[in-house]
Write a structure and sequence with these properties.
With 496 residues, this protein is α/β, with parallel strands linked by helices. It is built from 19 helices and 14 strands. Strands 3-2-1-4-5-6 form a six-stranded parallel beta sheet, with helices on both faces. It has a six-stranded parallel beta sheet with strand order 11-10-9-12-13-14, with helices on both faces. α18 links the parallel β12 and β13. The termini are far apart.
Length: 496
């Protein structure tokens, strides 16, 4: 069996960096080199301040960096020396041309394939790690076949990553499954066995699944589509709960105890974000349209539409509660990453909530414990968010390093990310410094256990999927009984 001793990973982002760090950590006899054209990113990987935040990642990197884990910009040398090359580059949704707004842009994948075949020699296994559309491996293989050399033998595999940001290191060390797809030829099966041997250093064989290439590619899209669908489903129920007086948390618990459904991904919120869910669902929609399956495409498009509806609905609720205008009003927005325990802001719901509030002229004071000011300003200055007027961001947005500073003098406090620290804030201190009436809009249901306390302080509470009963002391003029006193019905005379 072919033995993999040297691995090259092209792309030092959220997938390539953590994945290859864990492989190096778990396989000390394998040399792993992560390469990228971005010099500043590589410098960060080689420094004490990593370019991405993940719990436990720094410890993993420091345990093997300089021994069998290396970060470099020398891409060609790393490819030439490797037995296995992972392609972990970005595959964003196209913003132009055919498939705009839905199809995946594979220009970086193609560039990697051309560079690999140009500098390679001998036998190598080339593996897709990036989320790609179905049959992307076939496109890579066609580039290889069209540029082949007598001494070159390249095998193409699909090995999608199922890690979740915020728990990436744990997901990589203890995966639910490892999926490897390849050709059903003898050479393809040989390559699959070689990659399986790498994972078998720490993953039980029963959790390593092998399929053909197309099944592997589609499984990744389908998995993310199903997870996004569950979030949109419970968010749709949250709207119904707010209209009827039900509590979406209680509903989610009740249906989640059904073993056929399960409790995972039934947390109502202001909407899903991240680099994968929206991109992969849109990719699936485009694939269905291209294959003349309009009904299937329409079904999955509704997952995206519901997510957008939830964001708009939450922003409209903020505006409605603030007396139907937020123009010139200071609003504290707590949390900007798309979920806790990560600094990733890609497709974060906070971006869209900010957009809707900026459209109404609100002055936003934004705090996040892990997202840099430059990233927040960059995200809000994108043409589709700033309405082609990036100057308004400098006028309406202030990024703070202190949540109390963000809330001082604010009309409302909006929680958009479920950071644990937001449960521990001194809300009495915050209330004293806010304008009255002071509102809290909890888009992540992180303050459920504090509702009674917050109401006693004086806050008006609005949350996802629940009507918070407002405890009011009725006004009673002196010497007059309660206006709403219950009048007892007259006592019936007993019949003789």
């Amino acid at each position: 069996m072919f033995q993999i001793k040297r691995i090259c990973c092209i792309g030092a982002g959220y997938v390539g960096g953590p994945t290859c760090s864990v492989i190096a950590h778990m396989c000390p006899e394998i040399t792993v080199t992560v390469v990228d054209v971005n010099e500043s990113r590589i410098k960060a990987w080689n420094s004490d301040t990593l370019p991405i935040y993940e719990p436990g990642l720094k410890e993993v990197v420091e345990s093997c960096r300089g021994r069998n884990l290396f970060f470099s910009t020398d891409i060609d040398s790393a490819i030439r020396d490797a037995d296995l090359v992972f392609i972990s580059v970005n595959t964003p949704t196209k913003t132009y041309g055919m498939g705009k707004g839905r199809a995946a842009d594979l220009k970086f994948i193609e560039a990697c394939a051309r560079r690999i075949v140009e500098v390679s020699d001998g036998y190598k296994i080339v593996t897709e790690k990036s989320t790609v559309p179905v049959r992307a491996a076939e496109s890579i293989r066609r580039i290889f076949d069209a540029n082949t050399k007598p001494s070159l033998n390249l095998q193409v595999l699909s090995n999608p990553e199922f890690l979740a940001e915020g728990t990436a290191v744990r997901d990589l060390k203890e995966p639910d499954r490892v999926l490897i797809g390849g050709d059903e030829t003898a050479e393809g099966q040989r390559a699959i066995r070689a990659l399986c041997a790498v994972y078998e250093h720490w993953v039980p064989k029963a959790r390593i699944i092998t399929t053909n290439t197309w099944s592997s590619e589609l499984s990744k899209l389908a998995a993310n589509a199903f997870l996004a669908q569950r979030i949109s489903s419970i968010n749709s129920i949250s709207a119904l709960c707010e209209a009827t007086g039900a509590d979406v948390e209680e509903v989610a618990k009740a249906i989640g105890m059904d073993q056929r459904i399960g409790s995972k991904f039934l947390k109502a919120s202001v909407g899903f974000g991240g680099s994968c869910f929206q991109k992969d669902v849109l990719n699936l929609v485009y694939l269905c349209e291209a294959l003349n399956l309009p009904e299937v495409a329409s079904y999955w498009q509704q997952v995206i539409d519901m997510n957008e509806y939830q964001r708009r609905r939450f922003a409209c609720r903020i505006i409605d509660c603030l007396f139907n205008t937020v123009t010139g009003k200071k609003i504290a927005l707590l949390g900007f990453s798309f979920k806790k325990d990560t600094g990733d802001t890609r497709e974060s719901s906070s971006i869209y909530i900010s957009k809707y509030l900026m459209d109404e002229g609100a002055k936003l004071f934004i705090y996040d414990p892990k997202v840099l000011k430059e990233q927040i300003i960059h995200d809000l200055s994108q043409p589709n968010i700033s309405e082609d007027n990036p100057e308004r961001v400098s006028e309406l947005v202030t990024v703070t390093t202190d949540p109390y500073e963000a809330c001082q003098g604010a009309h409302a406090l909006v929680i958009c990310t479920e950071w644990d620290m937001f449960k521990e804030l001194d809300y009495e201190k915050i209330y004293k410094k806010m304008l009255k009436p002071a509102f809290i809009f909890d888009g992540r249901r992180v303050l459920d256990h504090l509702h009674a306390h917050l109401q006693n302080i004086g806050f008006q509470i609005e949350t996802i999927g629940k009507k918070v009963t407002i405890t009011r002391i009725p006004y009673t003029p002196a010497g007059v009984g309660p206006r709403n006193a219950v009048i007892e019905p007259p006592t019936k005379k007993a019949k003789v």
